[in-house]
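Supplementary Methods. Inverse-folding protocol.

Structures were first reduced to a discrete structure-token string of length 298. This string, shown here, constituted the complete conditioning input.
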């Protein structure tokens, strides 16, 4: 039976995120209307909001305020959505379906999609750098730095560059892990760290264990995505199923096989959970999210 308290918490956060994003995004009635409509089209009513959920779960561990977490999570989600808009464009993955609806360049056009991603990226940093009553300026500066590092050449953008260069190329397991630690894992790691930064100061050991948890669960997230690309259909995924195999992209399934990829996901999950052992009940939401991430497929 599903964990009803966790499902209730997750649903409430997802609804709160919809409300927060609706408030932070520009109005569709303001000029330039087409750009603002496209921004709202891609950012609202879609996705499971896994990264914001991780922000809130880590923030709960550190005693952060809901208002601060909503702003931080919104900024992080804007970075994630901008990356999806750009990744789907013809110059990269050339996909037509995202979150169950036509991708931005299909619904609008390529120029609008490019500008939509650009605008979401800058809006994210506008949001996270604006003064927050319950966050000390020094902590907020660390947040801006953390998000920038996760999104740029040493994180998500760098991982996407490696991914594009790897089409049709054999990768070793360490090379595949490195790519996904950047492309997918960097933002997931940032989600946990940003949520924790919004609350009480943590010890060096606590921060190290949260970081280790985030690295492992971020990698597990990608392994499960690769499994789902093989096993789920497009309606379930909200994006084109089987596209990685069709494009000859290296994945954990192509490298390890389906059964071994599932075993590896469970192993990463167990390693991530072990890093939370010393936090007690304050890490319960993070533990539940780790279960949810890995249980999406099996």
């Amino acid at each position: 039976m599903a964990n009803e308290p966790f499902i209730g918490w997750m649903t409430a956060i997802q609804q709160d995120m919809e409300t927060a994003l609706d408030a932070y995004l520009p109005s569709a009635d303001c000029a330039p209307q087409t750009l603002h409509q496209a921004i709202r089209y891609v950012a609202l009513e879609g996705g499971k909001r896994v990264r914001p959920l991780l922000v809130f779960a880590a923030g709960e561990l550190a005693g952060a305020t809901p208002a601060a977490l909503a702003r931080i999570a919104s900024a992080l989600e804007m970075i994630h959505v901008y990356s999806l808009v750009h990744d789907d464009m013809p110059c990269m993955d050339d996909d037509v379906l995202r979150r169950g609806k036509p991708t931005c360049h299909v619904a609008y056009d390529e120029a609008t999609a490019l500008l939509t991603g650009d605008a979401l990226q800058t809006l994210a940093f506008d949001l996270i750098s604006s003064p927050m009553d319950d966050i000390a300026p020094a902590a907020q500066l660390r947040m801006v730095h953390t998000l920038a590092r996760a999104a740029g050449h040493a994180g998500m953008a760098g991982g996407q560059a490696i991914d594009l260069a790897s089409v049709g190329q054999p990768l070793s397991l360490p090379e595949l892990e490195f790519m996904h630690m950047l492309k997918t894992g960097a933002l997931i790691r940032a989600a946990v760290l940003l949520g924790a930064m919004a609350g009480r100061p943590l010890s060096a050991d606590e921060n190290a264990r949260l970081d280790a948890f985030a690295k492992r669960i971020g990698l597990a997230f990608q392994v499960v995505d690769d499994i789902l690309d093989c096993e789920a259909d497009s309606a379930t995924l909200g994006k084109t199923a089987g596209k990685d195999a069709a494009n000859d992209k290296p994945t954990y399934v192509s490298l390890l096989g389906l059964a071994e990829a599932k075993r590896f996901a469970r192993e990463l999950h167990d390693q991530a959970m072990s890093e939370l052992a010393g936090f007690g009940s304050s890490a319960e939401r993070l533990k539940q999210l780790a279960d949810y991430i890995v249980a999406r497929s099996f």
